[in-house]
Amino acid sequence: MARAPRRRGRSGAVGRPHRDRSGDRAPALVALDAVRPGAGVVGRTHRPTAAGDQVTLYLDASALVAAVVEGRNRSVALDALDADPDWCASALALTESLALVPRLTDEVVLQDDVEDQLRLLWDRVAVVPIDQRCLDRAAQISREQPVHVSDAIHLAAADRLPRPVRFVTFDPAQIPVALALGFNVVSS
């Protein structure tokens, strides 16, 4: 059985045609516009808090997926997104998130919906580049801490952001390392 072609990048897309799925099972996704109308990064990567501090919200791949898929971590992810209008993630986060989609469901229509929601969320995220500086810091973190290189890349990307950083992850391996780096961890 042939698989439907995947929709690719939608940078600058204003919208997409509506697909009638009245006969399909409803996907367990969040309508992000309902949660954060008009949200997005507009040239800033942080905002003042009530105390006047700058806060930056960093999302790893597990947080991106949790924000768009029904599950026990969704409310934590959405609360974090709702608390801060400016979101950041490493350039690796979207790739990791999209790679997880086929593991969530076997239904192609639902996979497409999850991918669409991830890409819509991604359009609102300020991307921290994975350049040589980030990779060097990731190598240092992975030598000093018990994390995989991909986790170290997320941590190194977040480490480039202005403090304080709220680091949203549902990966138990990243939590103690993020705390050791001085991040405020948001998790369940």
What do you see in this structure?
- This protein is of the alpha/beta class.
- The protein has a single domain (49-186), classed as Rossmann fold (3-Layer(aba) Sandwich), CATH 3.40.50.1010.
- The protein has eight helices and six strands, in the order αββααβααβααβαβ.
- Strands 1, 2, 3, 4, 5 and 6 form a six-stranded mixed β-sheet that branches.
- Strand 5, helix 8 (174-180) and strand 6 form a beta-alpha-beta unit.
- The model is unreliable at 1-51 (pLDDT under 50).
Chain-wise SSE layout:
Elements (H helix, E strand, L loop, with lengths): L31 H4 L11 E2 L5 E6 L1 H8 L5 H10 L3 E4 L1 H13 L3 H15 L2 E4 L3 H13 L4 H11 L5 E4 L5 H7 L3 E3 L2
Parallel strand pairs: 2-3, 2-5, 3-4, 5-6
Antiparallel strand pairs: 1-2
Summarize the structure.
The chain has one domain: Rossmann fold.
Structural features:
Rossmann fold; alpha/beta; single chain; 8 helices; disordered N terminus; 188 residues; 6-stranded mixed sheet
Helix/strand/pairing class, anyone? alpha/beta
Number of structurally distinct domains: 1
Cα-atom radius of gyration: 17 Å
Shape-level CATH architecture: 3-Layer(aba) Sandwich
Major β-sheet annotation: 6 strands, mixed
In CATH, the topology is named Rossmann fold
Low-confidence parts, pLDDT < 50 over ≥5 residues?
1-51
Topology order in helix (H) and strand (E) letters: HEEHHEHHEHHEHE
